[in-house]
Amino acid sequence: MSNNNTAIVEISQTASKFSSSIVLQAENKYIDVKSILGLFTTLVSNQSYELHVHGPDADEAKQAMIDVFNKHGLNVSVVAE
């Protein structure tokens, strides 16, 4: 699971670069992606996730998050609001 830990730290660090709100939806749970603890309890590699991104730099944040999720082989889709 150590590579999952790397993914969690990198996802959280990437999210923290943006002022937008970035929320990960996994089934019926919503997690602030900037919260490492929230990610630790939620991120399971064989699950698919939805990202909800709102804010002034949302477009850049969405692309950065997609890149970091894909890099770690995690299945994510960004929800268009």
UniProtKB/TrEMBL annotation:
Q: Which Pfam families match?
A: PTS-HPr (PF00381)
Q: Which InterPro entries does the record associate with it?
A: HPr-like (IPR000032), HPr-like_sf (IPR035895)
Name this protein carries in UniProt: Phosphocarrier protein
Stretches assigned to the HPr domain:
10-70
